[in-house]
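Data card: per-record layout.
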Amino acid sequence: MPERLEQLKRWLETELEFRDYTITPASADASFRRYFRVLHNGVSFIVMDAPPEKEDSHPFIDVSRRLYDGGLNVPEVFDQDLGQGFLLLSDLGSMSYLGALDARRVERLYADALAALASIQVCDCDGLPPYDRDLLLREMELFREWLVGKHLGIALDERQHAMLDHVFALLADNALAQPQVFVHRDYHSRNLMVTTCNNPGILDFQDAVCGAITYDLVSLLRDCYVEWPRAQVEEWALGYRELALQSGILHEEYEDPRQFLRWFDLMGAQRHLKAAGIFARLNHRDGKSGYLADIPRTLRYITALAGRYAELDPLCALVADEVLSALD
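The structure for this 328-residue chain is written out next.
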């Protein structure tokens, strides 16, 4: 899209009066947005390029303000041209959590991320879209449509379809039974930046909703891009539960840690069905094949629940016996 880049440069030069600047690609995400790093007068900025016919930038600006007002480290919006789809943002650096997580730093980095999550969950979510049953079910359907059907060409029989319908409803019920809070919706290692002050920097929050308390916790601790031992994950999850109780995010009626872990595990199943379907869709619809390598790890989180929740055993068997085996 060289013409789009030229349009962006004209905006910088004519509207913002940038001179003697350099512009380099910063990153792209799973949508139509692209990001550029612009160095001008010794200051580094990020320009978000979100074609208005493809992406609505209003939610980004709204959620950014909510999180910024909550004390979170998010990009500050310095200037904008929504007609053209350009935003000038502060630069949170180039070191993501994914590139920094190692045995020496993981505890500190996750402690910072969990503390920031508590701050996110007390932010005002009035007016955000609800993470309702329809949305939860539509997300899980991506697994059936794009991964099982489109990518693998597996023809499910009537019994298997009925099983998925039942499990999808169960997982939606689990999400809706939880306290509903501000949900970032992609709170994982690729969207958290290591920063020297107010760590972490938080990106890609424009799809925020009001939803289940364990959703972002699952995104962080059962990350599609990096995996940790189950015992460690449960220790972190229950540590966050204590923080949520102390912070008033969770109340005493939800004090049972076994209930919290059930919420967490079943919420993970919902998210990982969704993510696996999205990764397949990105390949077939958008020509982005790089995410296919993350599907096996994502689905193994589901098969690891076999024997823990009898109601999920048929799903675990389908994923293990037909889906993962077909991916090998």
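Known properties of this structure: The chain is about 50% helix and 15% strand. Residues 292 and 301 are 16 Å apart (CA to CA).

See the next section for split statistics.
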